[in-house]
Amino acid sequence: MTPAYVVCLVLAAAPALPNVPNVLEEHRDVQQSITYSRYGHTVRLDTLPAARWDDLAQYLADTTPEVLHFAGRGTRDGGPRFVTDDGGEAPVALDGLRRCVTAATANGLHLLVLNACWTAHLAKEFSDAVPAVIGWQAEVADVHARGYARVFHRNLAAGESVAKAHATARMMLDLAGCPSSPTLHTGAGRIPEAHFLIGPEARSVPLRAPLNLRLRQSGLHLRKPRFRPPPPQF
């Protein structure tokens, strides 16, 4: 029987230009965090490097991930930026992005992570459709965005809820002195503390050695050895 995987898609949407986030390193951080987590074997990590707009549409036409993680840059008054055919970048059309996200949610998307600057307003808006959405309130340094992604996904794949994994990652940012912070938004009636990436069907029961019932029932393990007198001395 083919195992059922939780699919996590990383959109590495940034060109190879100076002063641009190293999204391939972010993908590597997420991959290692998931691989070495307790339930990492139940997660399938997909990536779209140097992602264009049509890459996302084509992927969603064939596969619906449970988690969609955008790694790249955001626009202060617009949306996430995607790679263009000339090797540059440009913000995505928000109406088109809304339609993609809404359609993916209807098919099983549960979590959207917009790991880019100035995406908190989109996270709040998209939470009307997606059960849980994360975005950044302001500009964020690459090292802090990558650190958040690393801790967040590691704890998700370890079996923690979205709310707890987010809180743990934010605590790491506080210790690192990050001036900005990501925010978690959920729709009405949705409880992030009850939202998990790893469901109960994927949580294996630890194996234990079976009891030797014959020995236990007979009571032989409780009997004292029979006393034997020492041999006579001549």
Automatic annotation (TrEMBL):
Pfam families: CHAT (PF12770). Residues 20-171 form the CHAT domain. InterPro entries: CHAT_dom. It comes from the Bacteria. This is CHAT domain-containing protein.
